[in-house]
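explain this chain.
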Amino acid sequence: VAPVFVLLEYVTLKKMREIIGWQDGRGDGIFSPGGAISNMYAMLLARYKMFPEVKEKGMSSAPRLVAFTSEHSHFSIKKGAAALGIGTESVICIKADERGKMIPSDLERRIIEAKQKGYVPFFVSATAGTTVYGAFDPLMAIADICKKHDVWMHVDGAWGGSLLMSRKHRWKLNGVERANSM
């Protein structure tokens, strides 16, 4: 219906994926009305990647899923978990340091604890620019933990993602290219 707009969307999203650092701009993308819905889409993707049968059979076909995010993350992570039927109690908040950054050792400890309880860790939301402190979570360390435990890594860049375009401040997002979604 709108071929020129579809083409513009394709080209723009590919360029955005290249800026993130994904090889040859590979991947997919969608324009959304804001960060809250983007975070929920990421959680939806992570759940679908791990348990595609949920699409047809519903949440009863999946084990108890748990997500992890910083205690300083945006409220939309819990909101998304509620909307997707995962539940707000299945979002585990990870301690932040005095500057508002997620503490990777606490993330790993909490992932291990969740596994020991029989839960399935499926999603970690790291934040690139928290709403209160403006903190950037340590993405490289979080990526290492996610890879080790086979957990989807999302970066909420609603506030600070635009620093990917800054020569001076891009370093604050080192490791974002290792995320599964942003």
Remarks:
- The longest strand covers residues 120-127.
- The chain is about 40% helix and 15% strand.
